[in-house]
């Protein structure tokens, strides 16, 4: 008996070590399936393809440049307020564990200057250095500057982030996330994925509201 109990404890510990890295990814995948079901039933999204994400992944900007064994899943196509939107899950292996992100890419009617807004660290592990771009900007709302980091370098984008509109919109979203507008596309990404379809759609609408003055100027031009 003196040897049985230690053997059982060791076996239990080994099982936890082997199984635990797979529990969280499976839970997040299950939640992503539920979100996709909600998007299909409530917002008219339909099945998309992996090929539609090739161009986005080729940028090698966060979150796509992290880790190994990178792949997308749950690809959907739909629209939000008339803008074409692609949705997917993205996974990669970092420091031996699988990590997940939720993605949403919006096709814009005209190009916009680069602007990046981060509401959470791109990666949760302190062992993985975060790639922080140049051009950090602060605005007129201290609470927003503490919650989000904004990066931009062109005059139009700097003007956009210098006012209170960006802070007013982004501080109302249900969950913090990251987004980047570049050329004729804006990419939203959230570590672990969104908690619901309603939250994802609210996030997309928030970004479109922020960009609306720039998009309107482009349409009028």
Please summarize what this structure is.
The protein is an alpha+beta fold and 221 residues long.
What does this structure look like?
This protein is α+β, with helices and mostly antiparallel strands and 221 residues long. It has one domain (4-220). Helices cover 40% and strands 31% of the residues. The protein has 6 helices and 7 strands. The protein has helices at residues 4-43, 54-57, 142-147, 155-162, 165-170, 197-220, and strands at 46-47, 68-80, 83-94, 97-118, 136-137, 149-152, 178-191. The longest helix has 40 residues, at 4-43. It is globular and about 40 Å long. The model is unreliable at 8-21 (pLDDT under 50).
Number of strands: 7
Major beta-sheet overview: 7 strands, antiparallel
Kindly state the mean pLDDT as a whole number?
81
Alpha-beta content class = alpha+beta
Number of domains: 1
Order of helices and strands: HEHEEEEHEHHEH
State which percent range the strand residues make up.
25-35%
Give the % helix. 25-40%
Distance between the termini: 83 Å
Low-confidence stretches: 8-21
Cα-atom radius of gyration: 20 Å
Basic shape:
globular
Specify the number of helices.
6
